[in-house]
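Appendix C. Worked example: DUF3817 domain-containing protein
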Amino acid sequence: MPLEPKPADLPRIPGALRLYQVSSIITGVLLLLLCAEVIAKYFFGTELEGGGPNGLLALVPEGTVTAVNLSTGLLIVHGWFYVLYLFADFRLWSIMRWPFLTFLVIALGGIIPFLSFFLEVKVGQRVKAYLAAHPVASVESGVSA
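Step 2, the predicted output written as C-alpha cells:
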C-alpha cells in the first residue's frame, strides 16, 4: 500500500505545490537560456556581454568580454534557482510521501531541457487530483476543486 500524506500535512500541500510550480518554470526557462548560451559559445564562439561598448546586450567573440559577462551570470543564476527547485521538489515529495524514484525524476527536470515544463504539468495534475479526492484538505487550505 503506497504511503499518503499525513493529515497534519494536508494544509501545506497547496503552498508546496505553488513553490514547486513557480521554481519549475523559472528553472526551465533559465535552463533553455543556458542551452542557447552554450550553443552560442561552443558552436559560434560568442559570449553574451552586458553594458559594454557594443551596447546593452551584445554577442562578442569568446574571451573579449570587457563589461559584465552575462554568460557566466546565467550559469550562476540557473545554479541557484536549481537549488531552489531541488528544495521545492524535496518539500513536495516529502509532504506527499512519494517513492524516492519520484524525487529523482523530478530533480532531473532542472538539468534536462523541457522536462521541467512537462513535469510541472504532470506533478500539478497528480497533486490536484489528490486534493480533489480529499476535500478535507481542500477546505482547510482554501483550495477550490
